Amino acid sequence: METYSRYFARTSLRQTIARVDVRDERILGEIRRETFVRKLKGRAFTSVRRHGKHLFADAGATWLHLHFGMTGDLAYVTGDQREPRFSRVVFNFDNGARLAYDDMRLFGVVELVDDPDAFVAARGLGPDPLDPSFTFARFAGLLDGRRGAIKSLLMTQEIIAGLGNLYVDEMLYQSSVHPRRAIDRLRAVETRALFTAMRRILREAIARRERDVELPAKYLMLHREVGERCPRCGGTIKRTVVFGRTTYYCGSHQR
Ligand SMILES: [Zn+2]
Asked: How far is the CA of 179 from the centre of ligand 1 (A)?
């Protein structure tokens, strides 16, 4: 998600929106096509913010809100570069460039909101894991007094906004914690390890994607296959379902 936010900021700010093409209204959430187009035409995006999986771009009197669902993506194209195949909304700038929101499966949302802070509050979203104010003390506070499986808590957007399934599995793997471990049975050193791994993995993933290089071979993400050998301990990779999501873990070193 942070990658989308940086991409938007790098490509699409401070260009006047000459035309908005809504190619598929199903992506528009609650807003009508006419209202959406009218409120953005002639405006320019001046800054971009992110909270968890939600991206907001300031367009003056309103904010563009993007959620990327499972398959959402952004593509900034110029000249005769081709737009992505599943472009649902295209912002045409007056310099001839276009920003396309592409989403094959239509699980994402494109809409307008008045105030991102109000939106985050209304949705009851938890803190963003990359926000500088999200300290270890705050993380430990979120776990305090809770029960149930650690993975379920980490996946709950109202507790922490924006940790995806692959990243949560990776955090647990790198911290040697089993996905179903009871939260109230975590040792302090494990809570610390989870927080450190979360920061490290998110930052590493962003940096690597921006430079288009592979993740380290020791990452579980590259070994999500039943029966694979754990690159860390030689154990066997297993699969289960936690929080309704397919979960991979090492049967040996994650306890
Ligand atoms: Zn292992």
From this structure: 13
